[in-house]
């Protein structure tokens, strides 16, 4: 399972609880889309997850920016993701970012608003925030490989309620 989180905004640890903590511990791969706030928070995620990849966000200082990139590609289940915290220009800029990086889908954060948009030229996934939802529900994303290719995904609250499902298939 691939687990996607973002926007922790913590000064005192990863703030993972309930289903989100269980999912991170069970995952084959955890991706964080930025805004840890403190280097110790990044380290707490690294300690918790078996395999952990991340990008930094606009609220991450130089100690984090020196350790992880602003953008990266990640492959899981044959699907290539372009990962960033945000791009000025909204969904159009995010789609262009994904295309420029040769990705099948884009993972991003920043808005704290969980959602999946499969209507544009490239699917866009924002897991929301598991720790500081800012008026949205606390959430993360879980994606699993499908036997016929691609991924089945869901957006899940920290209490384990699935509130949106989606599918991502590679374009290649």
TrEMBL record:
Keyword terms of this UniProt record: Metal-binding
* Region Disordered: start-end pairs: 119-138
- Going by the record, the broad EC class of this enzyme is hydrolase
- Cofactor(s) needed: a divalent metal cation
Coiled-coil ranges (or none): none
Q: Which residues form the Calcineurin-like phosphoesterase domain?
A: 2-139
Tell me the protein's name: Phosphoesterase
Q: What is the lineage of its organism?
A: Archaea, Methanobacteriati, Methanobacteriota, Stenosarchaea group, Halobacteria
